[in-house]
Amino acid sequence: MDYLAVKHTHMAIAVLSIVLFYIRSFSRLGSGAIAKNKLVFIGSHATDTLLLISAISLMAIAKINPLEQMWLLEKIVLVIAYIALGIITSKQQKTNVKVLFLVATTVVIALIGKLAVTKTALFL
């Protein structure tokens, strides 16, 4: 498959993944009914799986090694942090703690986006 097609697919899936994350998160700040919806739950996990597949495909097509490209290594570490924060956020009971973790996750998402656009390491 063509690199640009995979890249644009990856970007579209990333946006969908983020939108679904916020839908679930804001739902949990309220009644949580949308977050508990099977279609939303399965759709979120399917989207994240496709996001991972497209990311691996991009690395393979471009022959990029995250051990040689520090920006990509940082992005992978931040994606792991995003997943961990998302899990932690979903398990919180107190609204103010949920909001705090939601803000932290938003910062991580912004950093991931910055790395994706600039391809310049922030920390390493």
UniProtKB/TrEMBL annotation:
It comes from the Bacteria. The keyword Transmembrane helix applies. The chain crosses the membrane at residues 6-27, 39-64, 70-87, 99-117. Pfam families: SirB (PF04247). Keywords: Membrane, Transmembrane, Transmembrane helix. InterPro entries: SirB. This is SirB2 family protein. It comes from Pseudoalteromonas haloplanktis (Alteromonas haloplanktis).
